[in-house]
Amino acid sequence: MVLATAFAPSRVVHVVPDVSQLSPAECTVDAVAGTVEQLRQAAVRGITVSRGVVVFTYEDGACLRDEERDYLWERFGVPVFEQYLSRTNELLASECDAHDGLHLTAGAGARAGFTIDEGRCPCGDPRPRYIQLSEPDEAAEAERWYPVPAAL
Length: 152
Ligand SMILES: [Zn+2]
Prior knowledge:
By secondary structure, the chain is α/β, with parallel strands linked by helices.
């Protein structure tokens, strides 16, 4: 199940722009993919996932934060993988089972805020990996993820 509307549906890909429209029978899937916010909505909706969660992050946007990954992994009970996309939904890099950086796809160029690690990944995939260098503004990111309640 893909929660982003820019993706084309297929025999195996079910595109769901609004999880609130799903019937209970549609709430159990092998895998779910979307932005952190879309996946948080899927978690609140009670979507059950048996194999994996894919988080879309976008160039010039925030990367997946550890607390976001932990929340999604704990809530869905399956591994969480990040996929780094261009603004036109082209896959630039993707996370492997080793969760140690994002493997670059062929043709993906250097991006601001990342360094390229040419070292061997524990998963055995020879493609170089992006390792995030620059940390986003921690306070702003924390507030985005955990809204601060207004003072009473
Ligand atoms: Zn790897």
